């Protein structure tokens, strides 16, 4: 016989809700691991007192009773597994697995039995239903009546809130059966009553969720948060985990208490209680117990008088009362030396802590993800800037968490951590040997060599060196895409590699231009304009003859109304189906008649098309001739305009050249004085006029000589 039995998809009934998980039976005992919370219930073989096999709603179930009165219920077994379980119990636990069926008569009159943590309502020897007394939140009595109220179950759509029992009066003197019933319930119920004095009180502690300042009163069985607006009572049995996390600034500490079920305020549920402490704040604490009681109860974990940092005192007291280990960050160290990574989740910024067995994000909203529930992680490029990246986590249940705006320098450290924990990385794909090696009931920290990781480390070093060099230089940012494992070649394309600092000396524009780092023009491929499928969609000519109908369509048009009358209210789709069936079932002779009609329609269409095409050809030739004529006229007018432009250009050029010539041959006297220049200009004008006039006649010359 095998030493262990394992069952998947087993449901454990806890406080009215069915939590799925894995069950393992071994020689040492029974272990159940909750898939949702990761909580492990361990029942030692020596503690088992009774095992019961019975039929339940989810197939068959196993009920285990321990010697100290605790009851554990597991459902989801198949009927065929009874023999295997029965033999295992006999061989390893020396217990007989008894078969007990529930009573289904529907009677409401029976006997109540109290056994350990259970209230069982029986008819004869068969149980009708059982109530775990830890589910009871309140017990009230009336005349011959006891009312039980239950804790609200957030996981169930419908939950039982109240049950009333009628207790008949008895003839015995001095014993009230109603009070006896109520006392039995209250002794085992999860009823929080703040009776007696608190062990210690911490005043005005800063709480991030729920937000505010609260006095924390520590009682033996529960924690009391007393604020100005709200009060919360938290039983220690609901505390799942404790975390002590250093803030990135190294001056503050987070103390996180994970709760299941959560505390409620209206419709809001708080799964985490987060306290924020300053490291500099000290306290001296005195427990409200004598030294003997402290020693007996806490066995040296606490003393009557203690002093130290406030966060140390709170965490030490909580650890002793809850009896759970405090989780602290492991050996992870980010780029800045902190044990956390700054990032954003949803709308707010916070800190992501990589732990030894999971990730925790604080603080709004707090998220805790265990490694054994992670399907894969993904490193994605940031949506807004290339200086950061996103870290995505997807669980086996399909829930996705995206932590964005993580600094690019954190990538190498986070990648090393994820790879060392053997989490599947989506970017890389699932390589051989990189599958999770987690035990179903524990974590594994084994490591192995990965060539991809070594390459990534080398590239990370190169990137850091390049980043340092660029920060010492111009300080310009380059737009790089986040592609892990690829070299960044964009910088070489954009800037000249031999660029030097620009010269400040005045050697001329050409020298300065030579020494400036010339930006190379990016090669942009000319985008070819998309060809329109049809530049001008030809409109349908209304005068064109219509296509002929097929034989089936001619028959359908003729018989449509008849089919509608035979089947009133028939839809269009059903009508087409019915018509198809009738056409299929029609004889060949009848079909030939409609084929002839279709052939006649086709001939008529071809004849009409010939006539239409002849007419359209003549029209098209006319339009083409008119288009050619129009183009010719446009060319001629364009040529005339060009000639005119050339002529005007030449005229203006001659005028300007003459003007420039006259200006260029001015004498020094003309430049020196304005008066002489004006006189000279007049003279020149008169000389020019004389030179232009015809030569004088002989008479004129003679008279002139005289």
TrEMBL record:
<dbReference type="GO" id="GO:0035101">
    <property type="term" value="C:FACT complex"/>
</dbReference>
<dbReference type="GO" id="GO:0006281">
    <property type="term" value="P:DNA repair"/>
</dbReference>
<dbReference type="InterPro" id="IPR000969">
    <property type="entry name" value="SSRP1/POB3"/>
</dbReference>
<feature type="domain" description="HMG box">
    <location>
        <begin position="545"/>
        <end position="613"/>
    </location>
</feature>
<keyword id="KW-0238">DNA-binding</keyword>
<dbReference type="GO" id="GO:0006260">
    <property type="term" value="P:DNA replication"/>
</dbReference>
<dbReference type="Pfam" id="PF08512">
    <property type="entry name" value="Rttp106-like_middle"/>
</dbReference>
<feature type="compositionally biased region" description="Acidic residues">
    <location>
        <begin position="474"/>
        <end position="496"/>
    </location>
</feature>
<dbReference type="InterPro" id="IPR024954">
    <property type="entry name" value="SSRP1_DD"/>
</dbReference>
<comment type="similarity">
    <text>Belongs to the SSRP1 family.</text>
</comment>
<feature type="compositionally biased region" description="Basic and acidic residues">
    <location>
        <begin position="634"/>
        <end position="645"/>
    </location>
</feature>
<dbReference type="Pfam" id="PF17292">
    <property type="entry name" value="POB3_N"/>
</dbReference>
<dbReference type="InterPro" id="IPR009071">
    <property type="entry name" value="HMG_box_dom"/>
</dbReference>
<dbReference type="InterPro" id="IPR038167">
    <property type="entry name" value="SSRP1_sf"/>
</dbReference>
<dbReference type="GO" id="GO:1902275">
    <property type="term" value="P:regulation of chromatin organization"/>
</dbReference>
<dbReference type="GO" id="GO:0042393">
    <property type="term" value="F:histone binding"/>
</dbReference>
<keyword id="KW-0539">Nucleus</keyword>
<feature type="DNA-binding region" description="HMG box">
    <location>
        <begin position="545"/>
        <end position="613"/>
    </location>
</feature>
<dbReference type="Pfam" id="PF00505">
    <property type="entry name" value="HMG_box"/>
</dbReference>
<keyword id="KW-0227">DNA damage</keyword>
<comment type="function">
    <text>Component of the FACT complex, a general chromatin factor that acts to reorganize nucleosomes. The FACT complex is involved in multiple processes that require DNA as a template such as mRNA elongation, DNA replication and DNA repair. During transcription elongation the FACT complex acts as a histone chaperone that both destabilizes and restores nucleosomal structure.</text>
</comment>
<dbReference type="Pfam" id="PF21092">
    <property type="entry name" value="SSRP1_C"/>
</dbReference>
<feature type="compositionally biased region" description="Low complexity">
    <location>
        <begin position="647"/>
        <end position="664"/>
    </location>
</feature>
<dbReference type="Pfam" id="PF03531">
    <property type="entry name" value="SSrecog"/>
</dbReference>
<dbReference type="GO" id="GO:0003677">
    <property type="term" value="F:DNA binding"/>
</dbReference>
<keyword id="KW-0235">DNA replication</keyword>
<dbReference type="InterPro" id="IPR013719">
    <property type="entry name" value="RTT106/SPT16-like_middle_dom"/>
</dbReference>
<protein>
    <recommendedName>
        <fullName>FACT complex subunit SSRP1</fullName>
    </recommendedName>
</protein>
<feature type="compositionally biased region" description="Basic residues">
    <location>
        <begin position="517"/>
        <end position="531"/>
    </location>
</feature>
<keyword id="KW-0804">Transcription</keyword>
<feature type="compositionally biased region" description="Basic and acidic residues">
    <location>
        <begin position="532"/>
        <end position="544"/>
    </location>
</feature>
<dbReference type="Pfam" id="PF21103">
    <property type="entry name" value="PH1_SSRP1-like"/>
</dbReference>
<dbReference type="GO" id="GO:0005730">
    <property type="term" value="C:nucleolus"/>
</dbReference>
<keyword id="KW-0805">Transcription regulation</keyword>
<feature type="compositionally biased region" description="Low complexity">
    <location>
        <begin position="497"/>
        <end position="507"/>
    </location>
</feature>
<dbReference type="GO" id="GO:0031491">
    <property type="term" value="F:nucleosome binding"/>
</dbReference>
<feature type="region of interest" description="Disordered">
    <location>
        <begin position="609"/>
        <end position="706"/>
    </location>
</feature>
<dbReference type="InterPro" id="IPR048993">
    <property type="entry name" value="SSRP1-like_PH1"/>
</dbReference>
<dbReference type="InterPro" id="IPR011993">
    <property type="entry name" value="PH-like_dom_sf"/>
</dbReference>
<feature type="region of interest" description="Disordered">
    <location>
        <begin position="458"/>
        <end position="551"/>
    </location>
</feature>
<dbReference type="InterPro" id="IPR035417">
    <property type="entry name" value="SSRP1/POB3_N"/>
</dbReference>
<keyword id="KW-0158">Chromosome</keyword>
């Amino acid at each position: 016989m095998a030493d262990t039995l394992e069952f998947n998809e087993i449901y454990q009934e806890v406080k009215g809700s069915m939590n799925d998980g894995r069950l393992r039976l071994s020689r040492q005992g029974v272990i159940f691991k909750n898939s949702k919370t990761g909580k492990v219930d361990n029942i030692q073989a020596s503690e088992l007192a009774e095992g019961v096999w019975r039929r339940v709603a989810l197939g068959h179930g196993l009920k285990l009773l321990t010697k100290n009165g605790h009851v554990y219920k597991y459902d989801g077994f198949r009927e065929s597994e009874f023999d295997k379980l029965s033999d295992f119990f006999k061989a390893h636990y020396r217990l007989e697995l008894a078969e007990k069926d529930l009573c289904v008569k529907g009677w409401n009159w029976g006997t109540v039995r109290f056994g350990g943590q259970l209230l069982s309502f029986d008819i004869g020897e068969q149980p009708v239903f059982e109530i775990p007394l830890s589910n009871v939140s309140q017990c009230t009595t009336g005349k011959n009546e006891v009312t039980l109220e239950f804790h609200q179950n957030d996981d169930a759509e419908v939950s039982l809130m109240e049950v009333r029992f009628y207790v008949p009066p008895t003839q015995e003197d001095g014993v009230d059966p109603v009070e006896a019933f109520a006392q039995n319930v209250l002794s085992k119920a999860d009823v929080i009553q703040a009776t007696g004095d608190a062990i210690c009180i911490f005043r005005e502690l800063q709480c991030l969720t729920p937000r505010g300042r609260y006095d924390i009163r520590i009682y033996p069985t529960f924690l009391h948060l007393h604020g100005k607006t709200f009060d919360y009572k938290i039983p220690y049995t609901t505390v799942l985990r404790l975390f002590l996390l250093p803030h990135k600034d190294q001056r503050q500490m987070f103390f996180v208490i994970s709760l299941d079920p959560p505390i409620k305020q209206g419709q809001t549920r708080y799964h985490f209680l987060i306290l924020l402490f300053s490291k500099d704040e000290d306290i001296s604490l005195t427990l409200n117990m004598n030294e003997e009681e402290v020693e007996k109860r806490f066995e040296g974990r606490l003393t009557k008088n203690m002093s130290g940092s406030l966060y140390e005192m709170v965490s030490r007291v909580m650890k002793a009362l809850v009896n759970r280990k405090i989780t602290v960050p492991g050996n992870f160290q980010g780029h800045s030396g902190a044990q956390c990574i700054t990032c954003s989740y949803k709308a707010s910024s916070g800190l992501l802590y990589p732990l030894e067995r999971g990730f925790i994000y604080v603080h709004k909203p707090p998220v805790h993800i265990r490694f054994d529930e992670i399907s894969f992680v993904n490193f994605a490029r940031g949506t807004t800037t290339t200086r950061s990246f996103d870290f995505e986590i997807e669980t086996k249940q399909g829930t996705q968490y995206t932590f964005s705006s993580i600094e690019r320098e954190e990538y190498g450290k986070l990648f090393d951590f994820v790879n060392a924990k053997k989490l599947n990385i989506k970017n890389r794909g699932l390589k051989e040997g990189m599958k999770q090696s987690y035990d179903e009931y524990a974590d594994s920290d084994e490591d192995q060599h990965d060539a991809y990781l070594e390459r990534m480390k080398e590239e990370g070093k190169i990137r850091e060196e390049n980043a340092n060099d660029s920060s010492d230089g111009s300080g310009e940012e380059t737009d790089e895409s986040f592609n892990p494992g690829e070299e960044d070649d964009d910088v070489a394309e954009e800037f000249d590699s031999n660029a030097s600092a620009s010269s400040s000396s005045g050697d001329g524009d050409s020298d300065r231009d030579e020494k400036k780092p010339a930006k190379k023009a990016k090669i942009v491929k000319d985008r070819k304009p998309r060809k329109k499928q049809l530049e001008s969609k030809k409109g349908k000519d209304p005068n064109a003859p219509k296509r002929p109908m097929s034989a089936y369509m001619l028959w359908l048009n003729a018989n449509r109304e008849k089919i509608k009358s035979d089947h009133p209210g028939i839809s269009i789709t059903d009508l087409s189906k019915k018509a198809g069936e009738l056409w299929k079932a029609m004889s060949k002779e009848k079909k030939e008649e409609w084929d002839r009609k279709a052939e006649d329609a086709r001939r008529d269409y071809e004849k009409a098309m010939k006539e239409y095409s002849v007419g359209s050809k003549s029209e098209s030739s006319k339009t083409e001739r008119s288009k050619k004529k129009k183009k010719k006229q446009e060319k001629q007018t364009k040529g005339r305009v060009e000639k005119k432009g050339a002529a005007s250009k030449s005229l203006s050029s001659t005028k300007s050249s003459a003007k420039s010539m006259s200006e260029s041959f001015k004498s020094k006297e003309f430049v020196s004085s304005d008066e002489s220049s004006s006189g000279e200009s007049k003279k020149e004008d008169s000389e020019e006029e004389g030179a232009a006039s015809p030569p004088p006649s002989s008479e004129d010359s003679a008279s002139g000589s005289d």
